[in-house]
Amino acid sequence: MRLDPFSLKLFVSVVERGSIAAAAAQDHIAPAAVSKRLSELEIQLRTPLLTRTNKGVQPTPAGTALLQMARQLLLSLDDIAVQMREWSGGTRGQVRIFANISAITQFLPQEIAAFLKRYPQVDVHLQERISTAVVKALQENEADVGICTASTPALGLEVFPYHEDELVLIVPRGHALARKRSVALIETLDHDFVGLHTGSAINLALARASLAAERNVRMRIQVTSYDALARMVEAGLGIGVMPRAVAMPLAKSLGVKVVTLTDAWATRQLCLCVRSYEALPVAAKLLVDSLRAS
Fold first, then answer.
1. Per-residue three-class SS string for 131-155
2. Disulfide engineering: 149 pairs with which of 159, 190, 201, 251, CB 3.0-4.6 Å?
3. Which of 163, 161, 121, 128 is nearest to 143 (CA)?
4. What are phi and psi of 220, to 5 degrees?
5. Region 171-188 average pLDDT
6. HEC string of 81-102?
7. What is the CA radius of gyration of the chain?
8. Residue 268 and residue 284: Cα distance in Å, rounded?
9. What is the structure's pLDDT at 28?
């Protein structure tokens, strides 16, 4: 049995107005057409729904029961329409975003919070990945939006500038390098390093820079967060490299000192990546636009 929502709407209108003619006028349809639809509805449901008199119509007991169910159904249909308009307009939706640790620790908390304040019914699913894994996730459609270092090869993706960050050296207070305001990487390579997990953009940058200097980075230990890296440095297990915006607050609370790196590679560009901006769901487009504007 397939009930026509418009016939149910006419039935509710007739009962509420007590007259086929009044309902017909309200819905801009001929009274004969309304009467025909109601008769077809009674045939389809195999029970009388209305008692017709010279003064108008009254619902039968079956009609009274249908009236309640029809009202609930029509409200549900209206709610579906409203929610689908929200999805199509981007005010409701889901966005999968993969980002490297630098973007997550420096920029995304405030920027996503501002976005969700404007679009509270959008669900943002954020996952941390190294930059190469971010690109791979986008290429394999595991993510809608990615944030990585601009130096990461992004074959087949659309790339937009995001933020710039500056890498600095952190050393234990009392370390030989702590007396310096700035150093080049080559001046640090006689010391042990604490690094991030394998494949991180900072580790790769250190490896490339040391290779260009025909030296090796002595990576003593690797961790998975900047906070852990700073604590290892504080404990004297080595020196480390991280973004200045992350290092400065840590230096205030831990026994580490921030030293500027003079190498050109220490200034980095982060970028936003998508498979195709035009093909993104509306909610994902709105997030990309918001992040680019910030």
1. HHHHHHHHHCCCCCEEEEECCCCCC
2. 201
3. 128
4. -80, -35
5. 94
6. HHHHHHHHHCCEEEEEEEECHH
7. 32
8. 25
9. 84
The Cβ of residue 228 has, within 10 Å, a number of other Cβ atoms equal to 15
Q: What is the pTM of this model?
A: 0.67
Helices (H), the chain: 5-17, 20-26, 31-45, 61-89, 101-106, 108-118, 131-139, 201-212, 226-234, 244-253, 282-293
Which H or E element spans position 240? strand 240-243
List Cβ neighbours of 9 (8 Å cut-off, separation of 6 or more).
27, 70, 74
Measured in whole angstroms, the distance separating CA 200 from the mean position of its chain's CA atoms is 22
Q: Which domains does the chain have, with CATH numbers?
A: 5-88 (1.10.10.10), 92-163+269-293 (3.40.190.10), 167-267 (3.40.190.10)
**26-79 confidence digits (pLDDT tens):** 888 898 998 898 888 888 888 998 888 777 888 899 988 988 898 888 888 777
With a cut of 70, say whether residue 1 has pLDDT above it: no
Place of tokens 């992040």: 291
pLDDT at 115 over 90: yes
- Residue at 111: amino acid letter: E
CA-CA distance, 147 to 160, in Å (whole number)? 10
Distances (CA, A) of 241 to 194, 226, 236: 8, 9, 14
The tokens describing 155, both together, are: 């074959």
> Could you give the CA distance from residue 81 to residue 209 in angstroms, rounded to a whole number?
57
